[in-house]
Amino acid sequence: MRALFSYLRLNLQRQHQPSKLWLVVLVWVGCLLYMLFQGGKTSVMLFSMVTLLSLYLIGGGFRGVGRARGSRHLSIGGDHSEIIHAGDQVQVRLNVTIPGFLPLPYVIVRETLKRHNGESWSFEESLIPSMRGKGELLFQTPPLERGRYRFYGTECISEDIFGLLENRGKFNAPGEFLVLPRTVFVPYWEMGSRHSRLGGQQTSQLMSRPETNQINGVRDYVYGDRISRIHWNATARTGIWKSKEFEHEALPKTVLVLDGMAEHYESGAQFELAVSVASSMLEYGMRERMGMGLFTIGEENYSFLPTDHASDWHRMQVHLVDIMSDGRGEMLHKLEKDARLFPAGSLFVLISPLQGDKAWEAFQFARLRQMNPVQIRIESPDQQGNGQENTVDPVRGMSSYTLNSLDQLPLVLGGRTL
User: Do both 262 and 240 map to the same domain?
Assistant: First the structure.
């Protein structure tokens, strides 16, 4: 009896309102008094039925959803890949187990998914557990943007078969995942080509890199190629003149400088485009085994030295998941604060919406430290542009490429599309 009243108190504290369980207890007490004072077969039968019903209702509270447990499995579109990019939808499979032998007509499951910036989504579905108290719930999240996501406590709600009492329970099924920035496949980066359109000091440096004897692939024949460079097998197979592409000696190191100053961006979509550009270029650098690093400017500066190791690439991508446009002050001061982290002779790729004097200051910073600057200028997505034009300031020697859509990036970097 003491356990019964303890359970009643807990039930009241959880619901913060009068519980129907008290009504069940009062009816049982009334039937007991009726049997004791009235006697007879009718009172005994009535007391027996009420007792069985009360045991079922109370037992459902002790052994029902209040002790539910579960496990969670996440997948992308039926694929078990662990890499999730912005725009993907995550499929969630939640296995719920409700201990006890009492049947439940249905169970309502409520889930809450939260993003690292405070945004949240709620999911509510119902399932019918089996006779063993097991059930499986499948649902799909909306398309997600980059960030860290976590499922919080899962709440289960059920009623008895008579609809008299409602029972609640919570359990934690771990579910955390990262959503990487949206990316686009970059098939070619023209800065490493002999026939680059990226005029300036960096082109002459790349053109002067001697070639090795190691064949790196096949390309279209270009007027002026020596006969010894012609790839005869590929030419015969395709019917189009093909030339051998040889590997060059070590590529110059590349540093992507991502502008995270709040006042430089007109909208969050513009900053997300800048992050996606940086992430896409990192993927290209990893695929081509280029020594590529990352420097982000925000409230705090973060630097990753140029590398071609997969583990370092993963650290850069994870950093791009968390970065926000929260920088304040002058970008030049933040660059000068960590000037020692930029290796001399490297390519300085500024990813920023800056233009004019502000961009020229960043170019001057790079040149004074013997780096070769070029800018990928991020325009607002609602601006008109096709990303095909190279803007060059003949006086200052500034070279920048503008884009307002991630799909324009392959064209900007190499003039090739898939």
Answer: no
CA gap 405, 418 in Å, rounded: 16
The tokens describing 84, both together, are 């999730």
Is 185 a domain residue? no
Partners of residue 168 on adjacent β-strands: 157
Give the whole-angstrom CA distance, residue 9 versus residue 180: 47
- Each of the 418 residues of the chain gets a pLDDT tens digit; together they read 444 444 444 444 444 334 556 776 777 888 888 788 877 878 888 888 878 777 766 665 555 677 788 888 888 754 445 678 888 888 889 998 887 666 677 788 888 899 887 888 888 888 888 877 788 888 888 888 898 999 988 888 877 656 666 777 888 888 888 899 999 998 887 764 433 444 444 444 444 445 556 666 788 887 777 888 888 888 888 888 888 876 655 556 899 999 999 899 988 889 999 999 999 999 988 888 888 999 999 888 999 988 878 888 889 999 999 888 888 888 889 898 888 889 888 889 999 998 888 888 899 999 888 888 989 999 987 765 555 445 555 445 567 788 989 999 988 887 544 3
On whether residue 356 sits in a domain, the answer given is: yes
Phi, psi torsion values for 190, nearest 5 degrees = -70, -15
The answer to whether residues 289 and 375 belong to one domain is yes
> Global pTM?
0.68
- Count: domains in the chain: 4
- Asked whether the beta carbons of 313 and 284 are under 8 A apart, the reply is no
CA distance 268 to 245: 41
Both structure tokens of 23:
């009504």
Q: Are 257 and 280 in contact (CB under 8 A)?
A: no
**Tell me, what CATH number does 79's domain have?**
2.70.50.60
Domain that holds residue 273: 190-209+252-414
Report the largest interatomic distance among the alpha carbons of the chain, rounded to a whole angstrom: 116
